[in-house]
Specification:
- The structure holds 4 protein chains of 4 kinds.
- Chain B is α/β, with parallel strands linked by helices.
- Helix content of chain B is 38%, strand content 16%.
- The N terminus of chain B is likely disordered.
- Chain C has one domain: ABC transporter involved in vitamin B12 uptake, BtuC (Orthogonal Bundle), CATH 1.10.3470.
- Chain C is built from 15 helices and 2 strands.
- By secondary structure, chain C is mainly α.
- A two-stranded antiparallel ribbon of chain C has the order 1-2.
- Chain C starts with a helix and ends in a 14-residue tail after the last helix.
- By secondary structure, chain D is an alpha/beta fold.
- Chain D is globular.
- Chain D starts with 9 loop residues before the first strand and ends with a helix.
- The N terminus and C terminus of chain D are likely disordered.
- The chains are: A mainly alpha, B alpha/beta, C mainly alpha, D alpha/beta.
- One adenosine-5'-triphosphate binds next to α1 of chain D.
- Chain A: This is Autoinducer 2 import system permease protein LsrD.
- Chain A: Its main location: membrane.
Chain lengths: 358, 383, 336, 503
């Protein structure tokens, strides 16, 4: 006789899901979209929307990459430097030579893989905290690339390569949007696949994962590789969109982490939805657009961004703790709840324990 | 003699003399009528010296007597550089290194020790103090990271009694042997604003793309331009871009979605291509644009044949400090304030400049003035 | 009884991490001296040592504070903006002259402490991860700085500036103040309840709570002290530069550099283990490294590369030895 | 030791305590009275609410309803510190020690002695040393970091900490869970000293023998309700179990299957060893359950982790199903058909914030991703077979009680159909009913031809379940005894000559 309840219906799970921080970001996304459209009705034009999406694709893809690392319990601060590196490679290696496009892309992917593997192995095998590893990688990459190029990339790569970040499929849908959809779908599938679940398990408890036969070194390292590859894709899109410049990619790591956290993932690992990370990134861009439309000085932008992430994370935590309180009157009776549980490691609906007979 | 107070005679120090008691600046008020007027004049002033070597030209004025430093011995120069963190500085630094090499050949320089402060005031102060205390510098060259903060350190360098040459950005003291700089930011602002006003109708929409706030050299450019543009009845909105082309593109795209954009004003040229592309991607008519003598901008300008101007913050000024040292070694007087010419690139000389700089990377500056140095062109091409 | 507590193998006293940090420092100094001498210059001159010590002092202040915060299990990414804020506030008030020195110092430190309090309360009361909380607060302040101040602001009277330029027996006054702060911080950590509780909370907040420690207090205090120390760094920068600057903090990259120095000093990023003494060692390693790279005129871009590599390699070194291995019971490789 | 003492007035009285988590009430108006100098046993199945009640007394939880009285005065504790100040000390089920701090710092945490404004470190060390001596643990150096202590030593530090509070009431939540049988006697002596000082002890344990050895009064909880309180003398084991479980358990261990035949050797070790164990030779056959007995620290866990490749053997040979195999990582072990159920469920066995289903599929997904689909299909049924009690497959395992968590651990491993199962303390901290369930699973596996190697500190369990018993001491196997041996025989072997005197 089992006492295990059946899985709740899809609809109920959907509604329950929206209540979690990872689900709530989609509500935030919709709300911001509505606000932007109200403020600037032009924005509702599908053409505009799709262009906006194209513009946010690089950061959304970067956020997806960062998600894999964060959910495995680590940080990747080297993302922006990887993007900058790839941009420089695009300019210097591909340049104006169409024949170099494929070798160039291959080189960029290889560089991405190498960076990810080095980050991953230093974190897992050498046991250096990933914050430090990727900080070091960031310094080293920025320094090395600029050292090699004397700080200046040759120039924009050939236009046919830049089409990836600039062009439209059938004159309607920008390639970056397609790329975002493909990456998003792949990431979603990956998180549902055994690999993604194992990644979650490694983030939750690496010891358990190892004793379950998980190659934690391989799994975590591959998360770093995915992150570096996402940065590579973002770099390819950005160099297409905007051309070569040393400042491209700067700050992307913090932007991506912000997006992932806004998407309800928990720093420390084990929890979060990958598409929420992308939604977090898009929400952030929508917010900036809104500020712009509202005529707020761009210099205030960091302030708003700072306030938003603090509020989002705090509210996420509060919402979760409120859900844990038994019922309204009882909750009122102990306003001061010195709950020992760590802030936001947990995000599921309440449980009830049924008693089984033997 | 060094003066420590901030109230330096502004006319002696046009580009930076506006660093008045800083409280007034806090409000973002960068405009200074007197300096503006002076630079307005200097744009059409006559420059002493050979126009073939603009890096040696200067506007007639007070000279510093350098007889006390005359020497036949090669000099050990110590250069405290703010950074080489942007293409303009990189190009200039290459020119400077090439110049140093040439002067070493000719026996003027024994060595040039360089310290790079990595954009940090504190590091640069430490660098200067190190140069002073190690004591084996025959002359100091300083490219200050910021104006007010470096003033005390420059004063300490002056106190050693050796020649001190300050270039690019100034400091709030007139103790330096020579302060070398192009005419200045207001001149840039006047040139560009006049160009836009001449080429656009009243009431046109102009988007100004600015790198970042708070840098005097950049702020002066905009202060002058904004004044003229608004006076001429233009609709201007300005944005900070961090020089990031992604950001530039987004700003233009948003602006185009809200209405027409007729003109683009930039305080540096290296993002101009992204701005132009944003118009192309949106299928909008290309604007009248002011960029810089940066190669990517000049090339884009040539390719698309737009209406444009390339204002210049003369990159060749990086040669001048070392050449000033040569003059000092010879005991020749040097201009106390050495104002270099600053001639915008127009459609007329654009093509010639592009040809002269064939093979140079984007991020190179057309008026870099190093064509006669021994390493040309490899040193600039293979960075 | 003896079977319970007696059977354990003899516990070897191992070299402490701090000792290793200082060994690394000695090695770095020795190597630097050799390299500098090989380049035909001298390392152990008064001027050069003063340069290194000066370089240490600013990062030192920030890193001491960062140590406290990291030990308590949090993180502070807002320090660069606190540094700038303190320099702005101090310079604004001191612009009136000598009479403004004391009020300027007090106000700058008070504002810094308030920012720290905000950080601490967001971390403890709103239960936002220190990374996010201080990133957010840093962004908030940077927006304010960027909007309200452009270019330098205010000024420091000459009397105040002497702090930045005074040497006592060849040691910059700023370094002496920094070392005094380090001493006080170490004393606080090891000799006060607060210090013990700070370690406890960083080690395990749950354990600390169940032991009756008010877990929020050490975290808040650590954040307040960290910001106050960052404020001191800002004031010192004010003394050196003579004007307030809204970007002076971000110019130095004090957020990531201080964290790197703390970790280089052997403190665990996850909290609960480490020392101020180690951090000073870490800061010194950075300073010597930077100094020797400057003396050797290493390409500035290569400098960043080397810095990054050194951070990772050094921390890998500590991590390698601190992987907790139980002492083996059987050492021989052949079966008995 | 259970001799009746004169009853004093209650020191601490709890009544009508109601506590709920997440809308589920786990204590329904429970009451309890503690008297000075008594050892009060608190028993009940897993999830009955024992730990929760203790945490309420300790001020770690605030009850939704109910009152606490200390010496007849109503009190309420908003935090652990208030409870401690009031004289209630607690030794929690999970260790609450800072592993990177010294014993002394741990003992005095939150109340460091001061001289003037500074902490008096010397006095801290001296007092701790004296304290350790007073409870009979003179071998421990108060300055040692806790990380270097064995589990038993850590338990002593926990108790020292409680004693140092000068508490009038000390609650202990399964203090012996991590101790081997003979080490428990040290605890007995400590508890005796405490009761002599008039301290009331609330004692939670699943080991009924301890309850009868120590307690004067016994309170039984079941599903968060108070079943009753009796003088220990009025109860026997059978009766106590009936009150706990609500029915009579016919036997503690499932019967051995009649005339079952042992199969081929599945796991053979010869001269195997690493840094922690040496010269290990053993054989486990298909269908056989081999018990590993030994004192705390004898090296049983190390032996299992050596077999499983977590601490790979560096010498000797291992054969699996007759084929020589070298296992260098847990992954290889899993692929070779091994399973390891660890002694530390929360730290090593489960992903606590993942769901029941995610945990149940953890091993399959990690090692045989191709079989995930089938395993997912089979999961609900397998969990049902194990009689898992949970709200749903998407419930996070951290909210399950210990017994149910162990069932999820079993489900994880059964999903990959292992041929050799290594069990380390398979019933640590789980109640009699759940224990029986685990034993049944073991029997069923053996019947299916699985080889089982089980390390346990509970001698009755080893004797009751094993077909053969290997005894370890100091990292070596020192002998083999049949399941018909007495506990004393096993202990004598495990402890060597030294312990024989004690036994
Ligand atoms: N912090 C919590 N949040 C949610 N549920 C909890 C919490 N603590 C305990 N529970 C639930 O309360 C019930 C009682 O748990 P408790 O730990 O008191 O049982 P126990 O009698 O100590 O069991 P065991 O013998 O397994 O230790 C269990 O169902 C448990 O899942
Ligand atoms: N954290 C630790 N640090 C150092 N030595 C330890 C530690 N934990 C255990 N030991 C030592 O390692 C050896 C084996 O310990 P372990 O507790 O794993 O054995 P065991 O036989 O599995 O006992 P049990 O399963 O009852 O815990 C013992 O000598 C013990 O003292
Ligand atoms: Mg319990
Ligand atoms: Mg064990």
């Amino acid at each position: 006789m089992t006492a295990v309840a059946v899985q709740p219906s899809l609809g109920r799970r959907f509604v329950a899901g929206l209540g979690t921080p990872s689900g709530a970001v989609f509500l935030l996304l919709v709300a911001l979209l509505v606000a932007v459209v109200v403020a600037n009705p032009n924005f509702a034009d599908p053409n505009q929307l799709v262009r906006f999406l194209a513009r946010t694709a690089p950061i959304a893809i970067a956020a997806i990459g960062q998600f894999f690392v964060i959910v495995s319990g680590e940080f990747d601060l080297s993302m922006g430097a990887v993007i900058a590196t790839q941009v420089v490679i695009a300019g210097n290696v591909i340049g104006q030579d169409e024949a170099m496009i494929l070798p160039g892309i291959a080189l960029m992917l290889l560089v991405g893989v190498v960076v990810g593997v080095v980050n991953g192995l230093l974190t897992t095998v050498a046991k250096v905290p990933s914050f430090i590893v990727t900080l070091g990688m960031m310094l080293a990459l920025y320094g090395f690339v600029r050292f090699l190029t004397g700080g200046a990339a040759t120039g924009n790569p050939v236009d046919s390569f830049r089409e990836i970040g600039r062009g439209l499929l059938l004159d309607t849908i920008p390639y970056p949007v397609i790329m975002l959809i493909v990456v998003g779908a792949a990431a979603w599938a990956l998180m549902r696949a055994p690999y993604g679940q194992t990644l979650l398990a490694v983030g939750d408890n690496p010891v358990t994962a190892r004793l379950s036969g998980t190659r934690t070194v391989v799994v975590k390292t591959s998360a770093f590789v995915l992150s570096a590859l996402a940065a590579t894709v973002a770099g390819i899109l950005l160099v297409g969109y905007a051309g070569v410049h040393p400042s491209i990619g700067q700050g992307y790591e913090f932007q991506a982490i912000t997006a992932v956290v806004l998407g309800g993932a928990v720093l420390g690992g084990g929890r979060g939805w990958v598409l929420s990370a992308a939604a977090g990134a898009i929400s952030l861009e929508l917010l900036f657009t809104l500020l712009n439309i509202a005529g707020i000085d761009a210099t205030w932008r960091p302030t708003v961004q700072g306030a938003i992430i603090i509020a989002a994370v705090a509210l996420g935590g509060v919402a979760w703790r409120a859900a844990r309180k038994p019922s309204a009157p009882a909750a009122a009776a102990r306003a001061e709840d010195p709950d020992p549980a760590p802030p936001s490691k947990t995000t599921t609906p309440p449980i009830t324990t049924t008693t089984g007979e033997q | 003699a060094c003066s420590t107070d901030g109230s330096v005679d502004p006319s002696a120090n046009p580009d930076t003399g506006t660093e008045q008691p800083a409280e007034t600046q806090a409000s973002g008020e960068w405009f200074d009528q007197a300096v503006y007027d002076e630079q307005f004049e200097q744009r059409s002033a006559t420059f002493e010296g050979d126009p073939e070597t603009p890096w040696l030209q200067y506007i007639d004025g007070e000279m510093t007597d350098t007889a006390e430093w005359a020497t036949d011995e090669p000099m050990r120069a110590c250069f405290a550089n703010a950074s080489i963190s942007n293409p303009w500085r990189q190009t200039g630094f290459i020119t400077m290194q090439q110049q140093a090499e040439a002067l070493t050949e000719s026996g003027v320089l024994a060595s040039m020790e360089v310290r790079d402060a990595g954009d940090d005031d504190n590091t640069q102060i430490a660098d200067i103090d190190y140069f002073i205390s190690q004591g084996d510098c025959d002359a100091f060259i300083i490219s200050p990271n910021s104006t007010a903060a470096l003033t005390p350190a420059v004063e300490r360098a002056c106190e050693t009694g050796r020649p001190v040459i300050v270039f690019d950005r100034g400091v709030d003291t007139d103790c330096a042997t020579s302060f070398i700089h192009p005419i200045g930011g207001y001149a840039w602002g006047i040139d560009t604003a006049e160009f836009l006003i001449d080429n656009l109708d009243e009431g046109s929409n102009i988007v100004a793309l600015r790198i970042l706030p708070g840098v005097d050299v950049l702020e002066h450019r905009w202060a002058a331009a904004e004044k003229l543009l608004t006076e001429a009845g233009m609709n201007v909105e300005d944005h900070f871009t961090g020089a990031d082309p992604t950001e530039i593109k987004s700003i233009i795209t948003d602006a185009l979605s809200a209405g027409d954009v007729d003109g683009i004003w930039m305080d540096a040229g290296d993002g101009a291509v992204a701005a132009i592309e944003a118009f192309e991607d949106a299928g909008a008519e290309l604007p009248v644009i002011t960029g810089e003598d940066e190669m990517s901008f000049l090339r884009a300008w040539q390719e698309r044949d737009i209406t444009a101007l390339g204002p210049v913050y003369s990159n060749f000024q990086w040669r001048t400090p070392l050449l000033a040292l040569e003059m000092i070694a010879n005991g020749e007087p040097v201009p106390t304030e050495w104002v270099l010419p600053q001639v915008p690139v127009t459609e007329d000389d654009r093509d010639a400049l592009i040809e002269a700089n064939e093979g140079m990377p984007d991020g190179h500056y057309a008026r870099f003035g190093g064509e006669d140095l021994p390493g040309f062109p490899d040193a600039w091409q293979n960075r | 009884m003896s079977a319970v507590v007696g059977a354990r193998p003899v516990r070897r006293r191992r070299l402490s991490t701090t000792a290793i940090v200082y060994l690394v420092l000695v090695a770095v100094v020795a190597l630097s001296a050799v390299l500098v001498t090989a380049a035909g210059k001298s390392f152990f001159t008064a001027g050069n040592l003063a340069a290194i010590l000066t370089l240490m002092s600013i990062l030192g202040f920030v890193a001491i504070g960062q140590t406290l915060v990291i030990l308590a299990g949090s993180l502070d990414l807002s320090v660069p903006y606190v540094v700038s804020t303190a320099s702005i506030v101090g310079a604004g008030i001191m612009a009136q002259g000598t009479a403004g020195i004391l009020p300027g110092v007090v106000a700058a430190l008070a504002v810094s402490a308030l920012i720290g309090l905000a950080n601490g309360l967001i971390v403890t009361r709103l239960r936002v991860h220190g990374f996010i909380a201080t990133l957010g607060v840093g962004l908030i302040i940077s927006g304010w700085l960027g909007t309200s101040f452009q270019g330098s602001f205010g000024s420091a009277p000459p009397e105040f500036r002497t702090i930045g330029a005074t040497l006592i027996a060849g040691v910059p006054l700023s370094t002496i103040i920094m070392l005094a702060c380090a001493g006080l911080a170490a004393l606080m950590l090891h000799r006060t309840r607060l210090g013990h509780h700070l370690y406890a909370v960083g080690g395990s907040a749950q354990v600390a709570r169940l032991s009756g420690v008010r877990t929020q207090v050490p975290v808040v205090v650590a954040h307040v002290l960290c910001s106050t120390l960052a404020g001191l760094a800002g004031l010192l920068l004010l003394a050196r530069t003579s004007v307030g600057s809204p970007t002076i903090g971000s110019q130095g990259g004090y957020d990531l550099m201080s964290i790197a120095a703390v970790v280089l000093g052997g403190t665990l990023l996850s909290g609960g283990v480490g020392s101020v003494l180690g951090t000073i060692g870490g800061v010194a390693i950075f300073a010597v490294l930077d100094n020797v790279m400057s003396v050797l005129e290493v390409n500035p871009f290569l400098k960043d590369f080397i810095r990054g590599a050194v951070i990772v390699v050094a921390v890998a070194l500590y991590a390698w030895r601190s992987i907790q291995r139980r002492p083996p019971r059987f050492r021989k490789e052949a079966g008995a | 030791m259970a001799a009746a003492r004169p009853l004093h007035a209650p020191v601490l009285r709890a009544s009508g305590i109601v506590q709920s988590f997440l809308g589920t009430t786990v204590l329904h108006g429970v009451g309890l009275e503690l008297r000075a100098g008594e050892v009060h046993g608190l028993v009940g199945e897993n999830g009955a609410g024992k730990s929760t009640l203790m945490k309420i007394l300790a001020g770690a939880h605030q009850p939704d309803a109910g009152t606490l009285e200390l010496d007849g005065e109503p009190v309420s504790f908003a935090s652990p510190i208030q409870a401690q100040r009031a004289g209630i000390a607690t030794v929690y089920q999970e260790f609450n020690l800072l592993v990177d701090r010294s014993i002394a710092e741990n003992v005095w945490l939150g109340r460091e002695p001061r001289r003037g404004p500074v902490v008096d470190r010397r006095r801290m060390l001296r007092d701790t040393q004296a304290l350790l001596e007073s409870i009979g643990a003179q071998g421990l150096d108060a300055g040692l970091p806790v990380r270097q202590l064995s589990v038993a030593e850590q338990q002593i530090v926990e108790i020292a900490k409680a004693v140092s509070l000068d508490a009038r009431v000390i609650s202990m939540d399964e203090p012996t869970a991590a101790l081997a049988d003979h080490e428990v006697s040290l605890l007995y002596r400590i508890i005796e000293r405490l009761t002599e000082r008039g301290i009331a002890i609330l004692y939670v344990s699943h080991r009924l023998r301890e309850i009868f050895d120590l307690c004067t009064t016994i309170t039984v909880l079941k599903d968060g309700t108070h079943v009753g309180t009796w003088p220990a003398a009025e109860l026997d084991e059978r009766g106590l179990v009936r009150r706990m479980v609500g029915r009579e358990l016919s036997a503690f261990f499932p019967d051995r299957p009649e005339g079952a035949e042992l199969g081929e050797p599945m796991l053979e070790l010869e001269g195997a060893g690493n840094g922690f164990v040496d010269d290990i030779a053993l054989t486990v056959r298909a269908g056989e359950i081999v018990g590993l007995a030994g004192l705390q620290g004898a090296g049983r866990t190390e032996l299992l982790s050596g077999v499983f490749g977590a601490d790979p053997f560096t010498r000797g040979t291992m054969r699996l199903q007759g084929r020589e195999t070298r296992i260098r990582s847990p992954r290889q072990a899993v692929r070779a058909g091994l399973a390891l159920i660890t002694e530390d469920r929360k730290g090593q066995g489960l992903s606590l914030s993942l769901s029941v289903l995610q945990n149940a599929l953890g091993v399959v997904r990690a090692v045989f991703p191709g079989r995930t689909g089938a395993a997912r299909q089979a999961a609900p049924e397998r969990l049902a077979e194990l009689a898992l009690v949970a709200r749903g497959l998407d419930q996070e395992v951290q909210f399950l009680s210990g017994g149910n968590q162990q069932k999820v651990v079993l489900a994880r491993w059964l999903a990959v159909a292992p041929r050799v199962v290594l069990l380390d303390e398979p019933t640590r901290g789980i109640d009699v009913g759940a224990k029986y369930g685990v034993y049944e699973v073991m029997r069923r596996l053996a019947a299916d031809g699985v080889a089982i190697l089980m390390a346990s500190s509970e001698l009755p369990e080893v004797l009751g379940m094993s077909d053969r018993i290997l005894v370890m001491r100091d990292g070596r196997i020192v002998g083999e005894v049949p399941p018909t041996s007495s506990e004393e025989d096993v202990l004598a072997l495990a402890a060597g000559a030294e312990a024989e005197a004690a036994a």
